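Course exercise 7: structure representation. Students receive a sequence record and must write out the corresponding structure in token form. The form below is the worked example handed out in class, using Aconitate hydratase, mitochondrial (283 residues). Read each field label carefully; the graders check that inputs and outputs are placed in the correct fields and that the protein name is recorded exactly as given.

STUDENT ID: A-19
EXERCISE PROTEIN: Aconitate hydratase, mitochondrial
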Amino acid sequence: MGAIVEHHGPGADSISCTGMATICNMGAEIGATTSVFPYNHRMKTYLNKTGRTDIANLAEEFKDHLVPDPGCHYDQVIEINLNELKPLINGPFTPDLAHSVTEVGAVAEKERWPVDTRVGLIISCTNSSYEDMGRSATVTKQALAHGLKCKSQFTITPGSEQIRATTERDAVHRNLVLSLTLPATIRNMASGVVIGDENYGEGSSPEPRLLGGRAIITKSFAKIHKTNLKKRGLLPLTFADPADYNKIHPVDKLTIQGLKDFAPGKPLTCIIQHPNGSQETPS
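STUDENT ANSWER:
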């Protein structure tokens, strides 16, 4: 907590610039003040490919100042052998809870977690970049080539409008065969209220903001996510009665009243508008 994390070593050169940015972004999950990688050829390539050659040239000129100093001292050094890393699945309930792909089934059965996959989601600060969309398209094409069919729906929300436009330009969406074979939905920026269950959120995850969310109402928030929502200009709210969560359905429309005079400790009123025209006001 409160430390600056510097990632370095020979393995750093094997990680794409997008991958390094993702790792640094996830530093917030461990409470880091900030996270950095030393400048390398991956960053130069990324800057050139994204039309920022002038910045790449400037970085090259001063690259000796963008790497660790010779003989520098660290308060703590943690070595990770990338060759020994195994695919992990994080969650449920908190991103701290990680299990290897080979073990998660047995753990889920032991803990009596839900094991049926109803909806998949490609989104968040860790998997909605252009690079990630391209990988998803590749996996989808391989699955279709082997005759596999998707048994559940999945939703894709690109990490930004620029990523959405770029993937559409490069036919990544088409390669995902979203509209032809797989029951998938591509979400653009929208506005509204997000409803969450227990321990909602994953640290620095930007999904609500990227979806155009304005407020999030949950039973409870996960760790630092509530603070990060405030930093992004979203309103984190909790149900006064957690049981009211069950009154809201995906097709309902919500209106939050009392925002003009909102103050710490002062409750707001939520009006639930059902499709049949009836209304409910949670207690």
